[in-house]
Amino acid sequence: EGITHDGVEKGGVRLANEMLEVIRGEIEQRAQNHEQDVTISIVGNSLGGLYARFAVAKIDELLFASDEDGTKDVPHYILDDNIRLHFNVFCSTVSPHLGCADRTYFPIPRFA
Questions:
Q1: For the chain (length 112 residues), average pLDDT per consecutive 10?
Q2: Integer Cα distance of 30 and 6 in angstroms
Q3: CA proximity to 37, closest of 29, 27, 45
């Protein structure tokens, strides 16, 4: 309870860590030691969209990006030397990516 009040950065780090734990857990359940491909889609609503955006950036920072298969346009990320992560869809709804209208560095136009 109350862990949403500590900021987007800490929430995003928590989400990134939880995502990696879930991926590792799923791979362990499959009990396969060879290379695995995992595709990730992320959906976030409101504050969850901000957390998700930060979590994707954190995963990008933490993991090694590889384009060993020659597709430089779509790199994948290596987790634990045998899991290849591929990001598929990122969707956020009603997330204040530009901040609140009265708390920004530049004026945001109002249309309604």
A1: 82 93 86 78 93 92 67 67 87 83 69 65
A2: 35
A3: 27
